[in-house]
Amino acid sequence: MIQFSKGELVPLTDTLINEIYYWKYEEPMQAAKKWNGPYIKEPHMQKTTFLQETKQNRFIYPNVEGTLAIIIDGRFIGTVGSYWVDKQTNWLEIGIVIYDSDYWESGIGSEVFQCWVDYLFGNDFIHRLGISTWSGNVRMIKLALKVGMQEEARIRQARQVNDQYYDAIKMGILKSEWMNN
After folding, report:
1. pTM of the entire structure?
2. CATH number of the domain at 2-130, out of 1.20.1560.10, 3.40.630.30, 3.90.1580.10, 3.30.420.40?
3. What's the rounded Cα separation, in Å, for the pair 34 and 137?
4. What is the dihedral of CA 54, 59, 63, 68, to 10 degrees?
5. Residues 6+ apart with CB under 8 A from 79
6. Quick one: average pLDDT of 117-140?
7. What is the torsional sign of CA 117, 121, 123, 127?
8. Which of these, 62, 152, 163, 168, is most buried using a 10 Å CB contact count?
């Protein structure tokens, strides 16, 4: 468990995985999907399969959680997550999704994302962290800059959202840069 000023980041339980499933597949508005990879056509997954796969992929390394739930006042609002780009070079991609739009623009995302970066870099095996987003997701780009990431690649007009082209953005930070901040 990781504490932050307004709540905590906690490991996933079956109840929390069901919450994630609701926000990801059942919640009618799907507001977060408008920003979090809207160009990715995500197939619908059965709840039992989602539960199994999420539990199976719980750790990115022994005893190191790959996803944590964001909890405020006992309420689930989103997740921070990670996946390997290249395990041999200790390179992870990370992200944050705040599903509940009532918490957008509140500063929680900045604090939580910094906690997530600190948690991951607190492990000896991580060499670099990165994000992938699109140029229309200005909040994610600003968030990555706040935690010390820099733009490493911009692939022009590689993403299409609502029939409009956007650049694909790659940002990252090395552990040595994080240690010097």
Report:
1. 0.95
2. 3.40.630.30
3. 9
4. -60
5. 20, 67, 68, 69, 70, 96, 97
6. 97
7. positive
8. 168
